[in-house]
Design goal:
This protein is mainly alpha-helical and 178 residues long. It folds into 2 domains: 74 residues, no CATH class; 69 residues. Helix content is 68%, strand content 0%. The protein contains 7 helices and no strands. The chain is elongated. The mean pLDDT is 86.
Length: 178
């Protein structure tokens, strides 16, 4: 009986070892796209982000796509990146509101960092935060409008919008205190 038990154990171990050796392991790579052409890089990114293990890499992929687009600025980049953001929404990798905010932060002269329903008189203590948020968004607009799209006029419109908004907010806050 001991010999039979030993044979069964040896046979079982041999089967387990052979099964482990024949199972291929697939390594998952979530690296950002490397192509120098934006359309090819978008496809690389979509293929990568389609893997569930790579869902947390959306921000780094978007940043990489912006960098690639900076290598060949133009209006065609606008539609390509807008469609990419829509793809992220369609895949459930980003909420629609987040995609709209991201798109407008980079590619629209209007600022999305402005409070929507706050009274100007209640804004005084958060004016510093507003300035910081608008400065951050201005850098995004510089990258998106100027370096990715090559649209200097839209970028300078964004700068004027920021300056006018801050001037009006400061004047209104001063009037609230009077």
């Amino acid at each position: 009986m001991n010999k039979l038990l030993v044979k069964v154990l040896v046979l079982g171990c041999a089967m387990l070892l052979s099964a482990c050796g024949s199972t291929p392991t697939k390594s998952i790579s979530c690296h950002s796209p490397t192509s120098k052409r934006l359309n090819d890089a978008v496809l690389q990114s979509q293929n990568t982000l389609s893997q569930s293990a790579c869902a947390g890499y959306v921000d780094s992929h978007f940043d990489a796509l912006l960098t690639i687009a900076e290598g060949a600025p133009g209006q065609t980049n606008n539609a390509t990146l807008r469609d990419y953001l829509q793809w992220l929404v369609d895949q459930g990798l980003m909420y629609e509101k987040e995609a709209k905010t991201r798109y407008n932060s980079y590619f629209n002269p209007r600022y999305v960092s402005l409070p929507e329903t706050q009274s100007v008189c209640n804004t005084e203590r958060s004016l510093d935060d507003l300035v910081l948020n608008m400065d951050r968004e201005t850098k995004q607009k510089e990258r998106g409008l100027q370096r990715v799209l090559g649209d200097n006029a839209a970028y300078f419109r964004a700068i004027r919008n920021r300056d006018n908004t801050l001037l009006l907010m400061s004047a209104a806050i001063q009037a609230c205190g009077a």
